[in-house]
Amino acid sequence: MRFLATLLLFPTLLALSACSSAPDITPEERPTLVTLKDYRTGVDLFLANEAHTSMVDYYSKARSSADLKVVPNLDMGALMMALEDYGFFEAAQAGLRRTPGARTTLLVEVGQEKYSLSMSAEDASASIERSISCNNAFRALYNAHFSMQLIDNPDGRALFEDQQRRLGASNSRGF
Fold first, then answer.
1. Are the C-beta atoms of 35 and 44 separated by less than 8 Å?
2. Cα separation, 31 vs 40, whole angstroms
3. Rounded to an integer, what distance in angstroms lies between the CA atom of residue 141 and that of residue 75?
4. Closest CA to 115 of 14, 28, 35
5. Beta-carbon neighbour count of residue 138 at 10 Å?
6. What percentage of the chain's residues is helix, strand, coil (to nearest 5)?
7. Whose CA is closest to 135, among 20, 65, 39, 4?
8. Residue 97, C-beta contacts closer than 8 angstroms, at least 6 positions apart
9. Alpha-carbon distance 44 to 42, whole Å?
10. Which H helix or E strand runs over 113?
């Protein structure tokens, strides 16, 4: 029994020691823009590093949406490393393109290089898993950063005013 416990414990200890060395993340100094297009919802999300877009300049102007987030070069480097680990650059097509019937496309512009990786229901399961992993890496970085964007969208106010009117009407009916 003790032999079996030692046999099972040894690989675990090796795995822990391998995990103790943190990967070296290199800041992405080249101008980089990463776009996730979700064709099912019509939502496009963007991440740019500071080498691409000045955070101060971008966030100091009113915009119609907050879909683009500017992240530090180090964080973009971490995303590029994750995409490399997931096999994005080997599987992606050169250039910015959409695959007909795709559910999502992840577009990466690094310096002068451009890559596209689309996911559709017809893809092999390994390709779908790769795309999901790459998309999730993008979303994790996107969701980890706040956008300090001033929104200039006068039509957006109507959404809240309509909601207030509906709530007021339902309250007056005793609901």
1. yes
2. 29
3. 8
4. 35
5. 23
6. 45, 20, 35
7. 39
8. 116
9. 7
10. strand 113-119
Please give the Cα distance from 35 to 135 (Å, whole number).
Answer: 10
Return d(Cα 80, Cα 98) in angstroms, integer: 21
Contact between residue 67 and residue 9 where contact means Cβ atoms under 8 Å apart: no
Q: DSSP code of 52?
A: T
- What whole-number distance in Å separates Cα of residue 165 and Cα of residue 153? 20
Instruction: Please provide the size of the chain in residues.
Output: 175
Residues 72 and 78: their CA atoms lie apart, in Å, by 10
- Two tokens, residue 20: 């103790």
Q: Residue-wise pLDDT tens for the chain (175 aa)?
A: 443 333 343 344 344 444 556 679 999 999 999 999 999 999 999 999 999 999 988 888 888 888 999 999 999 999 999 999 999 999 999 999 878 889 999 999 999 999 999 998 788 888 999 999 999 999 999 999 988 777 776 666 665 666 666 666 555 555 4
Given a contact cutoff of 8 angstroms between Cβ atoms, the answer to whether 50 and 27 are in contact is no
pTM: 0.74
Token reading at 135:
């998309």
